[in-house]
């Protein structure tokens, strides 16, 4: 595989729904983002979805930036109130997470792993976060491998309103062990 290896530091900023809707639309409607479940969304649908997230105290969306340019999307949510509410026994310190790296014609070796590592490090910067929870589609084997690489351990399959999901958890200790191994 050609391309550069990613060893970049990322910064984060909140999604600005009116300003970022066009960019996010191009990312979430791409065929490679099928598991994001927004393939048929119009730009105004994407803006509305991110306005709703911005107004929600239990759900947040951030853009990951490299040299000031948005290069990935990160969402966090309180699983006791969103996404997984009632589907598992949430614990204090749990935070749910989604991330999306957009499709590209010039892939960089290690980029997506660098992104998920940065996302996890960002989450664990908060001392109140004890465990990160994810619920990717059971068919999304690529993200299962990435999750395992940063310390996630699958617990069980669950049915959400949108999909059959693999409920997985990663503690701070599991993350630190995975990324320093």
Write up this protein.
The relative contact order is 0.15. Helix content is 31%, strand content 26%. The longest helix is centred in the middle third of the chain and has 14 residues, at 111-124. By secondary structure, it is of the alpha+beta class. Strands 1-2-3-4-5-7-6 form a 7-stranded mixed sheet, with helices on both faces. Helix 1 packs across helix 2 (43-54). The protein is globular and about 35 Å long. Mean pLDDT is 90; it is low at 1-7. Helix 3 (111-124) links the parallel strand 4 (94-100) and strand 5. It has helices at 17-28, 43-54, 111-124, 141-149, 172-180, and strands at 11-14, 59-66, 69-77, 94-100, 131-134, 153-159, 164-171.
Question: What distinguishing features does this structure have?
Answer:
globular, disordered N terminus, alpha+beta, 181 residues, seven-stranded mixed β-sheet
Question: How is the secondary structure organized here?
Answer:
Elements (H helix, E strand, L loop, with lengths): L10 E4 L2 H12 L14 H12 L4 E8 L2 E9 L16 E7 L10 H14 L6 E4 L6 H9 L3 E7 L4 E8 H9 L1
Parallel strand pairs: 4-5
Antiparallel strand pairs: 1-2, 2-3, 3-4, 5-7, 6-7
Helix pairs in contact: 1-2
Quick rundown:
The protein is of the alpha+beta class and 181 residues long.
Helix content: 25-40%
What is the radius of gyration computed over CA atoms, rounded to a whole number of angstroms? 16 Å
The best one-word shape is: globular
Structural class: alpha+beta
Topology pattern, helix = H, strand = E: EHHEEEHEHEEH
Mean pLDDT: 90
Distance between the termini: 24 Å
Strands of the widest sheet, in order across it, are 1-2-3-4-5-7-6
The oligomeric state of the chains shown is single chain
| Strand composition percent | 25-35%
How many β-strands, per DSSP? Answer: 7
List the total number of helices: 5
Low-confidence stretches: 1-7
Described by strand count, sense and barrel closure, the largest sheet is:
7 strands, mixed
């Amino acid at each position: 595989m050609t391309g550069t290896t990613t060893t970049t530091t990322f910064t984060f900023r909140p999604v600005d729904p009116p300003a970022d809707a066009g960019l996010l639309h191009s990312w979430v409607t791409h065929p490679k983002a099928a598991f994001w479940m927004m393939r048929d969304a119009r730009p105004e649908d994407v803006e509305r979805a991110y306005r709703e997230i911005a107004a929600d105290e239990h759900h947040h969306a951030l853009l990951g930036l490299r040299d000031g340019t948005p290069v990935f999307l990160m969402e966090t949510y309180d699983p006791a109130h969103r996404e997984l509410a009632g589907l598992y026994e949430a614990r204090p310190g749990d935070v749910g997470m989604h991330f999306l790296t957009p499709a590209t014609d010039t892939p960089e070796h290690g980029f997506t792993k660098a992104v998920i590592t940065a996302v996890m490090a960002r989450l664990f910067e908060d001392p109140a976060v004890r465990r990160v929870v994810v619920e990717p589609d059971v068919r999304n084997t690529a993200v299962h491998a990435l999750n395992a690489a940063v310390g996630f351990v699958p617990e069980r399959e669950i049915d959400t309103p949108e999909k059959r999901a693999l409920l997985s958890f990663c503690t701070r200790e599991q993350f630190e062990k995975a990324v320093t191994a």
